[in-house]
Amino acid sequence: MERTATSARADARDEHNHAVREELPGLFQKMAGLKVKRFESLNNTKVGIRIGAIPAKGEVWADIVEPINAKPIAWYFDRKKHYSGAPAITEHPFGRGRVYYFGTSPGPLGIFLLFRRILKDAGLDPTFRGPGIEVLKRKGRDGRPNEIILNHTGRAWYVKGQRLEPYGVRILGVS
Questions:
Q1: CA torsion 50→44→11→88, rounded to 10°?
Q2: Strand, coil or helix: 38
Q3: In this structure, what DSSP letter does residue 13 have?
């Protein structure tokens, strides 16, 4: 099953950078299964959101969406905002897959929670090893599996019992 994600301000401008006349998200409206009736630029502030029962933050922008067929998976939850309780992020079946609409840019915790859900819904089994840690699975020339662990941070991490230096790489199971 295919997955597609689109976000706030999608289809707000055409190829000549002119504002579109259609109600947002314009051409994506049928795919996303929603309409954007109002929006707010957050500038340097943040807005509270809830992903299930877990509080997180939205940044940069806040589309206040009205689902047509889409199902909300995160809501604005901020008593300072008139749109508190409105959907912030939705999912909608489309074709052979799903479209996820992000009405705001989630902070790190929100991204982690949402993409873990999206990946699990896609039948993948994501494993979190730490912020900035990436684990790749590849096959060697002989067909045996290898794991390549990359540290994209400036601090040392222990991953699978191995010390990984800042910006280091470790290959396990080399064939």
A1: 10
A2: strand
A3: B
Whether 84 and 147 share a structural domain: no
Tell whether 49 and 88 lie within a shared domain: yes
CATH code where residue 112 lies: 3.40.50.880
Which residues share a beta bridge with 41? 61
Q: C-alpha angle with apex 126: 122 to 129, nearest 5 degrees? A: 165
**Residue 6 — very low, low, confident or very high, per pLDDT cuts 50/70/90?**
low
Place of tokens 């996303």: 32
Residue 1 has pLDDT above 70, yes or no: no
Task: Kindly report the backbone phi and psi dihedral angles of residue 22, in degrees, each rounded to the nearest multiple of 5, phi listed first.
Answer: -75, 155
Give the separation between CA 108 and CA 91, rounded to whole angstroms: 20
Q: What is the pLDDT of residues 71-112, one digit of tens each?
A: 999 999 999 999 999 999 999 999 988 999 999 999 989 998
Residue 91 tokens, joined: 């999912």
Q: Is the dihedral of CA 126, 127, 129, 135 positive or negative?
A: negative
- Residues 104, 58 contacting (CB under 8 angstroms): yes
Determine the Cα–Cα distance for residues 6 and 149; give it in Å rounded to an integer.
29
- Please indicate, yes or no, if residue 127 is contained in any of the structural domains: no
The Cα–Cα gap between 146 and 148 comes to 7
For residue 125, the 8-state DSSP code is -
Are the C-beta atoms of residues 36 and 23 closer than 8 Å to each other? yes
